[in-house]
Amino acid sequence: MNFDFSEDARTLQDAARRVFDETAGPDAARKVMNDDSLHYDEAIWKQAVELGLTAVRIPEAHGGMGLGAEEVCLIAEEIGRGLVPAPLMSSLLFTEALLIAGSEKQQAKWLPGIADGSVIGCVGWGEGGTQLPGSTPDTRMTKDGLSGTKSPVADAPIANVAAVTYAGSDGPSLALVDLSQDDAAVSVVETLDLVRPYGSIELKNAKVEPMGTSGAYQDFLDRAAVLLSFEALGTQEAAMRMAVDYARDRVAFGQRIGRYQGVKHKAADMYIKGELARAHAMHGAWAFSANSPELRQAAAAARTASLDALTFTAEENVQLHGGIGFTWESNCQFYYRRARALSAALGSRGFWSDRLVRSLEQRNAAAA
Amino acid sequence: MNFDFSEDARTLQDAARRVFDETAGPDAARKVMNDDSLHYDEAIWKQAVELGLTAVRIPEAHGGMGLGAEEVCLIAEEIGRGLVPAPLMSSLLFTEALLIAGSEKQQAKWLPGIADGSVIGCVGWGEGGTQLPGSTPDTRMTKDGLSGTKSPVADAPIANVAAVTYAGSDGPSLALVDLSQDDAAVSVVETLDLVRPYGSIELKNAKVEPMGTSGAYQDFLDRAAVLLSFEALGTQEAAMRMAVDYARDRVAFGQRIGRYQGVKHKAADMYIKGELARAHAMHGAWAFSANSPELRQAAAAARTASLDALTFTAEENVQLHGGIGFTWESNCQFYYRRARALSAALGSRGFWSDRLVRSLEQRNAAAA
Amino acid sequence: MDFNDTPEEAAYREKVRAWIAENTREYEGLAPPRTNEDFVARQKSWQKKKYDAGYAGITWPKKFGGQGRGPMESIIFSQEEGKSAAPTGLYAIGLGMCIPTVFTHGNQDVIDRFVPVALEGEEIWCQLFSEPAAGSDLAGIRTKAEKDGDEWVINGQKVWTTNAHLCDYGIIVTRTDPSAPKHKGLTMFIVDMHQKGVEARPLKQMSGGASFNEVFFDDVRVPDSWRVGDEGDGWKVALTTLMNERLAVGGKPGGSPDWKMLMDVAKEIETALGPASEQADVREEIAKAYINDRGVKLTQQRALSALSQGKTPGPEQSISKVVVAKQMQELSRLALDLSESQGFVRAPEGSELDKLQSSYFGAAGLRIAGGTDEILRNIIAERVLGLPGDLRPPKDTPFKDIKPL
Amino acid sequence: MDFNDTPEEAAYREKVRAWIAENTREYEGLAPPRTNEDFVARQKSWQKKKYDAGYAGITWPKKFGGQGRGPMESIIFSQEEGKSAAPTGLYAIGLGMCIPTVFTHGNQDVIDRFVPVALEGEEIWCQLFSEPAAGSDLAGIRTKAEKDGDEWVINGQKVWTTNAHLCDYGIIVTRTDPSAPKHKGLTMFIVDMHQKGVEARPLKQMSGGASFNEVFFDDVRVPDSWRVGDEGDGWKVALTTLMNERLAVGGKPGGSPDWKMLMDVAKEIETALGPASEQADVREEIAKAYINDRGVKLTQQRALSALSQGKTPGPEQSISKVVVAKQMQELSRLALDLSESQGFVRAPEGSELDKLQSSYFGAAGLRIAGGTDEILRNIIAERVLGLPGDLRPPKDTPFKDIKPL
Questions:
Q1: Helix, strand, or coil here: A131?
Q2: How far is CA A267 from the centre of its chain?
Q3: Which helix (H) or strand (E) holds D202?
Q4: What's the gap in Å between the CA of D104 and the closest CA on chain B?
């Protein structure tokens, strides 16, 4: 049995971590937050691209490294840990969409640019309302083209191309949108996340190419959920470390607050929720790379557990810091806000816990 | 504003409490539990009757004290606190059924016996399955009489008369069953509560009298919920006291465990849940006595909150005692088991939290 | 049992309601003040009216310019005031906490000089207790005051001071004897906030707003006659002040989301299986919210009843904040989750979602302000249930020699 | 990543599976033993077979009669054994915890006398550590052993001893020097459980069952040669034993209710809105149960992977029990609540509801056994996250002078 990441994957992760330790983190996030003219940190983006982080999953034929799920999952974790203010997750998710739903031609056209960083991709499924990733979008395809509004789309304001959902004949499906066309208008959208840029993509009879079947979109959701779980895990662990470090130093009533069980047990719960989520995320990474039928349930469990862990940790990190944690100057806010962003990123926990139970029911029925 | 119990009600409560402090409590409960031939403690029953505890709500015309909701609620709380091993709650609930749904003739026939303790009443709504108090029973009324099985019915093995539910023309309704008749066969039923006796009432074309409308039954449910909430509150507070007293004395790692925040915060949560439940129970007592339209929501909130408080306290009381709390000799088991009994007594929390929201929706609709 | 006013209470309510209606007309429909000056002016005008009409310091002893009435009258007045357009808030801390401390522990000169002017609304007060290293552990105060002739020289930093930038005076707790044990070496003074060496900076919160200040003291001189209580009694004196705060920070901010808002939001959200408000998990949360929100309100009504009956409220009051703050955080988060994208995009000013978004941030602060969830649980367990205190280092070590364990 | 055996592991699994199948036939379809004698006889017969075939003490060093193999072989054998009809359990503590302690810290005579016989299954062992006043705080042991010539005289009481009434020998921790600090004055001995002065009484649990004993020691004599480890080293020696326990009390009892059972029960329950398994609140609980149960299983597979790779498992193992115990309590309670009357009436032996009823009680014990939820959280916070320990009274006070704070 070898339910662990490969040495190669770990090596790549360490490389990414070293870079982000130096360049990213709360300070880099704050820099982007405080400068309205800044949507992301180009220096970090360049370094990440040089390191090949946008190319991991892209076949060598298209200028990528042709690596597997394990590698991209661990990269997602480091992106989350570093609150990396660059459109990496969006490009990684776009890549997965193209890999599972895109035609050979579409892949050949866009993947090389993603790999060398000259193209930034993003994924749009929401429409500004209370839609779920599973519900049929209002965005419609007619003979004149694709019409509708996708919002909020992470990194849309800086992206060149988007994979968006529309009402396919048999459920939500993906379409490929070249954002340089004027039939796709992107405007900035303000959200609770003050670091990552969000946009609205308005499509008026946009000339777009359909990407794969509605089934392919469902499979994309599973893979996206696994990647987002690893991003959440990284962010959660960073927030937990911040809380633990503070509890080790901060003194109240003559002793370090980490000595109080009220604080200690809270920190232990952060760890417990984090490790449960990690186990499911690893299960997802395995099912992803092995293309196992367990992927649907593993992905749903990973997404649900990672959101629970991150939300709890982000909230209790503020609590554990006391007054100082509630200030603008404290870094607690980045985790508190990012937890909201990751919740909204692809349907919040309710959607995924239900999807989990649904898939368990199907497996039981099949087994019976 | 005077959102508090009257002096008279408090005086009666104190009297009941003094008696039960001496006679009832875990030891009395254990005595009944350990002796299979014993269904209840007759001495306690006699004292309670002499004190008039079965007569509080019964009109003076029928040999009672003609007192109000406040008094009976506080008596229920003391019954709960003392884990009183006597059929008091059953008789009180039966009395409420008769008062709200019974005819003048029915009241005249049964209430005097309840008041002087010569008659023990009980209430049967369940049918041994997963029925809810709101669902229509399988027990049916035909021209030949009432047929069906009510189980588990608290105190049925020692009761003389029962109010049972059957499928009325417009929903579940109450009927009055004289248990001395041979068309009503009572057999003992084992439950998780090893102190209070439970029985199954088998009805074969039983000659019974209908009691009131289905609406009267719904109103009975509200009043019963309020009384059961006070019983739960009393039991919860006793369990909390037991936990706190132990935490004050028990020493681990050189200090009393009550000093550890892990223990302290647990005890605080017992208190917080208890006081929230108490506030709603008092609201219920007021709505009960004032016959306020708020009774439905107040009763549902009281029942839900009191079950939450009791369940949490009963479970964490064992936890806080550690190994010793898990032994047969420890009194923790009485609260742990009684929490199950009170949950099952009239539909568990899910039924009542839904009933709460339903009534809030109706009030909003009415207000709008 | 009843929820009604006594005849006396009803009569008083009638009287004040009429007076308030009469005197708040000019504030009705006013746009929110645009500048600090407007804000202060509006608040002052209302305080002055109350003062002239004998509705200021309702519970204060007559000899301090108060009305010498009971707590119920004061509560009834605030309830009616709250329903009106009256501009309130600026004096809550000064007249609610600071001045009562001054007339309880200050000398006659100080009382004569400050109390009437404050009650009239002429001078506005703030409370200068918390410090970066003295939050939950308030006695850890480091701001020092050193005696120089018959003056004291204050140096240090305070934090979480409400409206410091609008205030004229404040009460400040300082360490005057570092060689005394922690709780013994403190002394309280009155300080002139306009004096040179006093600098108030807005303290921006996680949410972006800034309703508090940091206040820096650099060689600020205070006459010994402005001392409140004896030298070294600062802790004892501060406790009087804090008594009042515990009551103040009872519930959650008015108009913050409750079960009703969750229900309304959920009604509007269409799911595959009908409106979210019909889903059992959402209904559970609505029920939980009702039980917590309403349960706390009812608990507060138990306290009012006690006061109305001339009794002291029971300890159950202590549950209020710890319940509502966490409830507020969970309810807001759940409603935002249910709203998916819409709950994440900055919502239009004043919309329900806007309220939910701000309260999700506000709740994180409310769980800390005026006693964290953890401190409040300790207080309940120790003072209400009688459990022993946390094991602490010896209390008699001189402050300057305390080594953190 | 994969969940498969290595070729070597697969080969070993094949081999043991075949042997087990061959040798467990006689146990298939047997009724549960009716008497203690039957029970012990059956367990002995299986242990003897394993011993003769070279499957006993798989990880033990060869010089102690073991097989000197790696942990994976031992795990694989137990996995296959668990799938078979083999009667196991009686030797878990003796061979899992006691004897390894004996051959690690005992003298050669003791090793020669006891280890082989025990491994063969001839003699059954129990562990005598916990006491009424020494539970979470195990070092609080009061049972005393006093030297008398070259013997020791033991007096006191132990509790929570598994199968004491079936055992031949036990390892017991005693206080031999009350004037030494708490952790320094302890010494471990081997004790003959059949000896006069030793009395084992069944300890009835809340649930009614009695799988543990109280054991009383009244002037029980033990030769100094039966001392395990040096005088005063009892704590250090006991830690070796407990290392193994932490691993043992990892998950929840096999066959105890999980998300699947909750789903099955809920499917059968008709509500006004269809089967309970379709209600969002119940689905939430099923999801929660899956995440906890499966999450712990996956976490254990991370550990197996480490062992299989010849690495040491990570600290994440420490979450297992604290997660599953509470989950088991909540899942059982929820299922019983959903079942209403049916969940409260004693359910038919062996039914799902019967399992749920017993596990609701069992879980209360599981949350305490082998480290309470609170102790385990402390351990995670301190050993894994590196937070400082609770403030404690000085460690060096002589045991007899310790005054509880």
A1: coil
A2: 25
A3: strand D198-203
A4: 28
Structure tokens given for D78:
């137990």
Sequence-distant (6+) residues with CB within 8 A of B347 are B132, B133, B134, D340
Band of residue D46 on the pLDDT scale cut at 50, 70, 90: very high
Are A255 and C345 a contacting pair at CB < 8 A?
A: no
Q: Which secondary-structure segment (H or E) carries C201?
A: strand C198-203
Which residue reads 């959607």 in tokens?
A: A351
Q: Which amino acid is at D168?
A: D
A281-337, pLDDT tens digit by residue? 999 999 999 999 999 999 999 999 999 999 999 999 999 999 999 999 999 999 999
Say whether C325 sits in a helix, a strand or coil. Answer: helix
Site from B348, B349, B357 to mutate, D interface, most D CB atoms within 10 angstroms: B348
User: What is the enclosing helix (H) or strand (E) of D239?
Assistant: helix D234-248
Span D223-234, mean pLDDT? 97
pTM, two decimal places: 0.97
Q: Which two tokens stand for residue D23?
A: 């040798």
Distance CA A91, CA A104 (A): 18
pLDDT digits (tens, 9 = 90+) for B7-39: 999 999 999 999 999 999 999 999 999 999 999
The residue written with tokens 């003791």 in the block is D110
Q: Check if the interface score ipTM surpasses 0.90.
A: yes
| Active site positions of D, annotated | 245
Computed over its alpha carbons, how large is the radius of gyration of chain B?
A: 20
**Does the beta-carbon distance from B3 to C296 stay under 8 Å?**
no
The CA distance from B255 to the nearest CA of chain C, in Å, is: 8
Q: Is the dihedral of CA A292, A294, A297, A298 positive or negative?
A: negative
User: Cα–Cα distance between C126 and C148 in angstroms, integer?
Assistant: 25
β-pairing, D125-128 vs D169-175, is parallel
Number of neighbouring beta carbons within 10 Å of residue A202: 16
Mean pLDDT, range B132-161, rounded to an integer = 97
Residue C222 pairs in a beta bridge with C152
Q: Which residue has the tokens 């509007």?
A: C268
> Which residues 64-93 of B have a C-beta within 8 angstroms of D?
none
Rg (CA), chain C: 23
| Contact state of B328 with D345 under an 8 Å Cβ cutoff | no
Is residue C60 a contact partner of residue C67, using CB atoms and an 8 Å limit?
Answer: yes
Is B271 close to C305, i.e. CB distance below 8 A?
no
Chain B residues touching residue A265 (CB < 8 angstroms):
261-262
Both tokens of B192, joined, read: 């998780």
The two structure tokens encoding residue B203: 């009805």
> What local confidence, expressed as pLDDT, does residue D242 receive?
85
Taking only the tens place, the pLDDT of each residue in A126-169 is: 999 999 999 999 999 999 999 999 999 999 999 999 999 999 99
Closest CA to B73 of B314, B239, B272, B298: B298
Is the CB of residue D390 less than 8 Å away from at least one CB of chain C?
A: yes
Whether D337 and B350 lie within 8 Å, measured CB to CB: yes
C13 is written with which tokens? 């309510």
Nearest 5°: the CA angle B32, B33, B39 is 50
Is the confidence at residue B120, as pLDDT, over 50?
Answer: yes
* pLDDT band, very low/low/confident/very high, at C251 (cuts 50, 70, 90): low
Residue-by-residue DSSP string for B228-297: HHHHHHHHHHHHHHHHHHHHHH-EETTEEGGGSHHHHHHHHHHHHHHHHHHHHHHHHHHHHHHT-TTHHH
Structure tokens, D82: 């668990």
Q: Is A188 on the interface with C (CB under 8 A)?
A: no
Contact residues on chain D for B323, CB-CB shorter than 8 A: 130, 135, 159-160, 368-369
pLDDT higher than threshold 80 for residue B84 = yes
The C-alpha atoms of residue D67 and residue C222 are separated, in whole angstroms, by 83
Q: A6 vs A285, A288, D311, CA distance in Å?
A: 12, 15, 14
Best to test chain D binding among C391, C392, C402, C403 (most D CBs inside 10 Å): C391
CA-nearest of D146, D145, D143, D148 to D159 is D143
